[in-house]
Write a structure and sequence with these properties.
The chain contains one helix and 21 strands. It is an all-beta fold.
């Protein structure tokens, strides 16, 4: 894990307290602050969660995560001897409520800042890839996973699966409209091989609004064939706007994911972007 204090111009290793080299996820809480800092979370491989209250200068582990009954069953298929914290979603409204997605293990919940944990709930997905929460929808948790889509409307107490309209059930990335918590997009493929393998890649993007079904969106996007599964995201300062990657290309939607256009991106000379694994959009 690395840390920058000058908007990314220079970097140095984060402070001590994380014993694992493989840091797979990072998140900042908007509901919980200590002094000048939002509480910072990091997740590793093997699955472990760490908390910082000083901007990443020092870290404290939350080892109770590994005491959950399902922990012995967690296993990441490409490396079945291990697993990792793929996503961390601090609740945007309730301090100390935290959700983590284990790949492959499920969604775990803490109500006390990670000191104790609740195991995965029925109807949530076990192959958790991306979680989302929304400040305009307190208690709602969104999950895109290897088996499809699931959500909770009561802060993670109960879950339901919402797959109507999905013809591809390997979901990878998820984003929610900043202005409308009922409108969301996911990237999807028919299998992990179609999602991530360049020789067999074929993936698409789905959109859902209100209580309607998932609908595949194509207008303005390239053919699914030959495209690795997209990373999708949104910026809370841009209502109804989504962004998506198609390999190293970046696409923009200004109508809540209905239609898309490719952005003209000029990369530095000599740089050829590999597959994109994450994307953040910041306000100018």
């Amino acid at each position: 894990l690395w840390r920058s204090e000058d908007a990314g111009t220079s970097w140095r290793p984060a402070g001590e307290g994380i014993p694992h080299a493989e840091v797979m996820s990072v998140a900042v809480s908007r509901a919980e602050r200590v002094g000048d800092y939002g509480v910072l979370w990091a997740g590793s491989e093997p699955s472990a969660v760490f908390r910082s209250e000083d901007g990443g200068q020092t870290w404290v582990g939350r080892p109770a995560l590994r005491d959950l009954p399902s922990a012995p069953t967690w296993s990441f298929p490409p490396r079945p001897w291990t697993h990792h914290v793929r996503w961390i979603a601090p609740d945007p409204v309730v301090p100390e409520r935290l959700f983590v997605g284990i790949e492959l293990g499920g969604v775990m919940r803490s109500l006390d800042g990670g000191r104790s944990w609740e195991d995965r709930k029925p109807h949530s997905q076990h192959d958790a890839h991306t979680l989302a929460v929304h400040p305009l929808a307190p208690g709602r948790v969104y999950e895109a996973a290897g088996g499809g889509y699931a959500e909770s409307l009561d802060g993670g107490v109960t879950w339901r699966r919402v797959d109507r309209g999905l013809e591809h059930h390997y979901l990878w990335s998820l984003a929610v409209d900043p202005a409308d918590p009922d409108t969301m997009i996911v990237s999807a493929a028919g299998s992990p091989w179609e999602a991530h393998n360049s020789s067999t890649a074929e993936s698409t993007i789905y959109r859902r609004s209100g209580n309607g079904p998932w609908e595949e969106v194509r207008e303005g996007l390239p053919s699914p064939r030959g495209k690795r599964v997209a990373v999708v995201t949104a910026n809370e300062g841009e209502p109804r706007v989504f962004y998506a990657t198609r390999n190293a290309e970046i696409y923009h939607s200004a109508d809540a994911g209905v239609t898309w256009e490719r952005l003209s991106i000029t990369w530095p000379d000599g740089y050829h972007p590999p597959a994109v694994h994450a994307m953040v959009v910041a306000e100018n």
